[in-house]
Each structure stands twice: as structure tokens, then as C-alpha cells.
Amino acid sequence: MINPIFAKDCSFSAQKIAAEQGGYIKKTEDLIEYGKHVCVVVIFIPVKNGEKQRRVEIALPIQ
């Protein structure tokens, strides 16, 4: 089970990254990989000229 403190950190980190990239959050997920807490963030970034949105997936270690 993920600690609520880690979930809060994940959400905050996702919001910060989305704002920096000019996109919006599609999904966040808290995971434990190899005994470490990881926040996986999926962001969609709008593009111009009717092109398909860019999907960015980032895995962040949470201390």
C-alpha cells in the first residue's frame, strides 16, 4: 500500500511538470519498484497545426 504522503508528493510533482511543459496531466500512479517509491506521470502536451498531442511519460523517484 502506498503511503498518502507519497501520493501527495506525486500529485504535486505532476502538477509542476505539467505546468513547465505547457500540458495537462492524464494520469499519475504511485508505484514501488525495487523497494523504492516511484511516481509515474503521463502528460499530454498540445501541439499546433492540428497535429496529434504529444504524450510524455516520466518516472520520478520520491524520497
Sum up the overall morphology in one term.
Answer: elongated
**Major sheet strand order:** 1-2-3
Structural class: alpha+beta
Q: Which spans of ≥5 residues are poorly predicted at pLDDT below 50?
A: none
User: Which range best describes the helical content: under 10%, 10-25%, 25-40%, 40-55%, 55-70% or over 70%?
Assistant: 25-40%
Which whole number gives the mean pLDDT?
A: 82
Q: Strand fraction band?
A: 35-45%
Instruction: Give a short account of the largest sheet.
Output: 3 strands, antiparallel
In DSSP terms (H or I, runs of 4 or more residues), the helix count works out at: 1
Secondary structure layout:
Blueprint: H1 4-21, E1 24-33, E2 36-45, E3 54-61
Antiparallel strand pairs: 1-2, 2-3
Write up what this structure looks like.
The protein contains 1 helix and 3 strands; from the N terminus they run αβββ. With 63 residues, the protein is α+β, with helices and mostly antiparallel strands. It has one domain (4-61). A 3-stranded antiparallel β-sheet has the order 1-2-3, covered by helices on one side. Strand 1 and strand 2 (36-45) form a beta hairpin. The longest helix has 18 residues, at 4-21. It is elongated, with a radius of gyration of 13 Å.
